[in-house]
Amino acid sequence: MKNIPSFMIFLVIVMGAGISIGTLTIPGDWYASLNKPFFNPPNWIFGPVWSVLYLFIAYVGWRVWLFDSTGLLVPLWILQMALNFLWSPVFFVAQKPAMALFVVLCLLLSVAAFIRAAWHIDRQSAVLFFPYAAWVGFASTLNASIVYLN
What we know:
The chain crosses the membrane at residues 7-25, 45-65, 72-92, 98-119, 126-149. The protein is mainly alpha-helical. It has helices at 4-24, 29-33, 46-67, 73-93, 97-118, 123-128, 130-149. Helix 1 packs parallel to helix 4 and helix 3 (46-67) packs antiparallel against helix 4 (73-93).
């Protein structure tokens, strides 16, 4: 119970930053004009998916901060968070899909590195990053397809 305030801090930071970036980088006319692959999901799906993923990401960040604050997991968690928050401005604001593809592939690698590093230290955190890795893998494929089609 005594750790709930620290979890709430992680939750507010991760969800708040995610919501802020999502709000500030809403897809506009440029994105609407792009050729997209047949598997491009409707725009409304991204908000709910990211909300659940950010909840997991915040919880995992909190866990590694509590249980492995001097190890490799905290820097890996921070790295994936920075890359995560960088992608939308690069793709939607700078309108650089190829550069965004590089960012999302680096994000995918950092999530995979986190899972690998966490597997023997904090298996629960590693497992909670599986859906995140799957979604980032899908996002990488989608981003690559947009680069290819445009």
